[in-house]
Specification:
Chain A: Pfam families: ABC_tran (PF00005), BCA_ABC_TP_C (PF12399). The complex is a heterodimer. Chain A has a domain of 63 residues. Chain A is 35% helix and 19% strand. Chain A is built from twelve helices and ten strands. Chain A has a six-stranded mixed β-sheet with strand order 6-7-8-3-9-10, sandwiched between helices. In chain A, a hairpin with a 2-residue loop joins β9 and β10. The longest helix of chain A has 18 residues. Chain A is globular and about 70 Å long. Chain B is mainly α. Chain B is 73% helix and 2% strand. In chain B, 45% of the residues are buried. The chains are: A alpha/beta, B mainly alpha. Chains A and B meet through α5, α6 and α7 of A and α7, α8, α9 and α10 of B.
């Protein structure tokens, strides 16, 4: 399957977070444009179009722990929007708010201009939103094909009796579902494991099956929660290639959460950085790379007591 | 539960319908000729009724992942509903009564399935006990259900379909076999349909299922309805064809557990598993009684038999849960694969 060469090249230039961020940062440049970075970026790819998704003042806490505090975010059609941050920064909480798994305490989510205090999870697929999960959320008892086909379950209109007896619209639906699932499997190079039980696949392939399940519905907005977590470097570049290819093919808008800053820098159009539930930066990859607050969040701030005196 | 679609790619591939068709041909063509009335009355009839109940519970528990301890209540609802439809609706054919009885059981199943929308696992299992106790209580309390019979025990109506009497042991066997075969076939079609996939999706990951747009609430209630329908019809077979009487006491909590054991021992999320499990549950006490009588003679009275049955059955369930969580079906498939492998390599 041909992939855009740019997608495969993504990984080569980038590396892990500290190196990327620390590279070439003379101290004179550090305070650069900090205040501007935090507002709405101006030079983004789709600045003119109205946002497909926008979060306004989202606040979420679990007991006394603040997971998200007053987070704003806008995602424009056609862009890859990355959300990065250290562990526990609230990235997954944000995705869970967007997909309605969590109900935010404050703020609202605007999908396609319609505002929700609590996104209706059950209607998410109908709204054209699909997601993957940080920890795999596949259906272990189903084959790869059936897992992917289940991504189209929201469209099924035939009832169980029709399906059991094979009458009415169920036949056409079944044929249509399986052929679309097969197309996606081929697209993501999964045809060879089509009939395997998904739980028996290696981790990297399971991640890809999850992407396939999300893509089969051809969503307008795709939420990827650490799609490359736990992968080897070559698996990561492969996955990045698939995400790019999917974008080219389905013109999907992507919200990408990723731990690996290197992957993110190469893939995304704009990056929001979270730290302790707050958005500390929101800009293009180059600007984020040079943002002092981001560097501090990732590398830590040098302590005053660097020598460890007195310990 | 990983044994649903195992990978048998290296085995000689027979079309999937061959084995069931051969078994059915044997059950219809050979068994009636060679079977004794003991075989029908004591083994095959309870086996068929319990297998069907197992198929029904497996749809709910094995496929859709909703644990239920109320199976016997749905059997009772089916049996009593069929009895009353047959008694009170003039000119309704037997098949009509049975179908309507299934519908009644399904409706009761939906009502007692409502807690599943909020409860999971152990808590849900406890809440389905309500069905068990309520249905049994209602059937005992209101004598209308048993047509004001003094003992609460009523004779099942004569079995006949389209004027053909099926009251003999063989007739009742064929009657039960036909219903079980048809419903099992439909159940098989169901679990491989989109609805069946939705059941498994909800069982394996409810959050993900909800997010990809599977109507979780509707699908859970549908699982309760379909499962209860099948179990209700199994109740009709149990009462009409096997026991020939209809009484609430036969459908107590022990029966519910028995059906749950059937699918655990046979194999969760497997249609075949219900038949494997039911065969073991039916044959095992008989075999144990023969064996005990042979080894211990008079010492092995009915009290000892009952006790040893419970002990051995309990041990079996523990052993299965530890050693073969996928049940007899997985065991069978493994043995078959070994044999085939050995046969091929010679």
């Amino acid at each position: 399957m041909p992939l855009p060469s740019s997608a495969l090249g993504v990984m080569e230039a980038s590396a892990y977070a500290p190196e990327v961020l620390a590279r070439g940062l003379p101290s004179s440049l550090r305070p650069q444009q900090q205040s501007e970075d935090r507002g709405e970026p101006t030079g983004s790819v789709a600045g003119v179009a109205s946002p497909l998704l926008s979060l306004q003042g989202i606040g979420l806490s679990f007991g006394g722990v603040v997971a998200l505090a007053d987070v704003d975010l806008s995602v424009h059609p056609g862009e890859i929007r990355a959300i990065i941050g250290p562990n526990g920064a609230g990235k997954s909480s944000l995705i869970n708010v967007i997909s309605g798994v969590y109900q935010p305490d404050r703020g609202q989510v605007l999908l396609d201009g319609i505002s929700y205090a609590h996104v209706p999870t059950q209607r998410l697929a109908h709204l054209g939103v699909a997601r993957t999960f940080q920890n795999l959320a596949l259906f272990k008892g189903l084959s790869v094909l059936d897992n992917v086909a289940s991504g189209l379950a929201y469209k099924v209109r035939s009832n169980f009796a029709g399906q059991v007896l094979g009458i009415g619209r169920s036949r056409g639906e079944q044929r249509d579902t399986l052929s679309r699932a097969d197309q996606i499997l081929e697209f993501l190079d999964l045809s060879a494991v089509r009939d395997r039980l998904v739980g028996t696949l290696p981790y990297g392939l399971q991640k890809r099956v999850e992407l396939a399940r999300a893509l089969v519905a051809e969503p307008r907005l795709l939420l990827l929660d650490e799609p490359m977590a736990g992968m080897t470097a070559s698996e990561k570049s492969e996955m990045a290639g698939f995400v790019r290819a999917a974008l080219d093919r389905f013109a999907t808008t992507v919200v990408l959460i990723e731990h690996d800053v290197g992957v993110v820098m190469g893939l995304s159009d704009r990056i929001a950085v979270l730290d302790y539930g707050r958005k500390i930066a929101d800009a293009t990859p180059d600007e984020v790379r040079n943002d002092q607050r981001v560097i501090d969040a990732y590398l830590g701030v040098a302590s005053d007591n660097e020598d460890g005196a007195g310990i | 539960m990983a044994a649903i679609t195992s990978d048998f790619s290296f085995m000689p591939v027979l079309p999937k319908w061959v084995v069931p068709v051969l078994l059915l041909a044997f059950a219809y063509g050979v068994v009636p000729l060679i079977g004794s009335s003991y075989l029908f009355e004591a083994i095959l009839l309870p086996f068929l009724a319990l297998s069907l109940a197992g198929v029904g519970l497996n749809i709910l528990t094995g496929y859709a992942g909703q644990v239920s301890l109320g199976s016997a209540a749905f059997m009772a609802a089916g049996a009593f509903a069929a009895y009353n439809f047959n008694l009170r609706v003039e000119g309704l054919p037997l098949i009509g009564s049975i179908f309507l009885a299934g519908i009644v059981a399904a409706a009761i199943g939906i009502v007692f399935g409502l807690p599943s929308l909020r409860l999971k696992g152990f808590y849900l299992a406890v809440s389905t006990l309500a069905a068990q106790f309520f249905v049994q209580w209602a059937l005992t309390k209101f004598s209308w259900f048993s047509n004001d019979s003094a003992s609460g025990v009523i004779d099942a109506p004569r079995l006949s379909i389209a004027g053909v009497a099926l009251d003999s042991a063989i007739g009742r066997y064929l009657f039960a076999l036909t219903i079980v075969a048809i419903l099992t076939f439909l159940a098989y079609r169901l679990v491989s349909s989109q609805t069946g996939r939705n059941f498994i999706a909800i069982r394996d990951n409810e959050t993900a299922a909800r997010i990809i747009g599977i109507p979780v609430l509707k699908t859970k209630l549908l699982a309760f309805a379909i499962s209860s329908f099948i179990i209700g019809v199994a109740g009709v077979i149990w009462a009409f064809a096997y026991l020939r009487t209809v009484e609430p006491d036969g459908f107590d909590l022990d029966r519910s557990f028995q059906i749950l054991f059937i699918i655990i021992i046979g194999g969760l999320a497997s249609i075949r598993g219900a038949f494997f499990g039911a065969a073991l549950i039916v044959v095992f006490p008989l075999a144990l009684s023969r064996l005990g009588g042979f080894l211990l003679g008079d010492l092995f009275d009915s009290g000892v038999l009952d006790m040893s049955q419970r002990i051995v059955l309990g041990a079996l369930i523990i052993l299965f849960l530890i050693l073969e969580p996928d049940g007899l079906v997985a065991l069978w498939d493994r043995i078959r694969r070994r044999l085939l492998f050995a046969w091929q390599s010679t």
